[in-house]
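Protein modeling request. Please complete all fields; requests missing the sequence field cannot be processed.
Requester role: graduate student
Desired output: 3D structure, token encoding
Chains: 1
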Amino acid sequence: MTDNDVAVVGFAQAPNVRATDGTANGVEMLVPVFRQVLDETGLSKKDIGFWCSGSSDYLAGRAFSFIAAVDAIGAFPPIHESHVEMDAAWALFEAWVKLRTGEVDTALVYGFGKSSAGDLRRTLAMQLDPYFTAPLWPDSVGIAGLQARLGLESGRFTEQQMAEVAARSRANARANPHAQLSGEVSAGALLDEPYLADPLRAHDCAPITDGAAAIVLASGERARELCERPAWITGLEHRIESAHLGVRDLTSSTSTADAARAAGGAEVEVAELHAPFTHQEILLREAIGLAESARINPSGGALCGNPMFSAGLARIGEAAGRIRSGEARTALGHASSGPALQQNLVCVMEGRG
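Delivered output (353 residues):
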């Protein structure tokens, strides 16, 4: 261990819910999450060297919505703060760089989103190429359906395999008190359901979810002081592909493969993959090159709760939790952003004796 090695030492998240009437706003979701993660690490707000958030003004429907969320931190003491307009997993990347430079030794990263407040499928069209694609207003489920159809017709996977992903995810989520969906269901029963956007059925798509998550990072000896078994980050990389859907192969994820190769993520015991659609989990497993023995999404993953702009961060937090509990020695957290797996981040972690 060196002084600039960085580890996850705390993680908390809000319950994954969907409620159009009365769901808490960003501040109300974040206050109990901050309280939980700070109590877990024994830190106070004044002990945090750097704060970094992930959210979206398009989702909130107002400009500078992340500034309002800072109210959850409080006006005093003054803080060193930054923000990314995407999933908070990328805010974690920024905080990780800050800690690696030695400028601070602790950071709190958080993300939040209230997806139920509007038409999420239409809102996500705003992330598409603004000249050729966004003006057509293709919704997020329809684009994922195109990707799934290409994969099915090319023989990359089958509808049976997609249904098996959904069934396993819901079974795993029974042990996750924060999951929105969970329970025992057979793949055969799922295949009897009608299509939502051919070839996708409802179980193939992540539910609309409101939620928030926070992670505390610490470096060097500070991490040892705050956590008995820190989840040390050994590799963290992200890559991006073209926003033009017609110029990349939608049946593979080269950005994930490149990020995983750079981060060293193939040989892990547990992997939490941010796959909002069943077929995308299959593509991600192949891109990363995960071993058959690796446990995939033991929390249930995004298919059982997908709060926008915190679901990717939660995958890192869930993966780190397996190390911190002693359940696994190595784990991988993955986050995705953009249409059809356009941008991908891979975080590899390990526990040390």
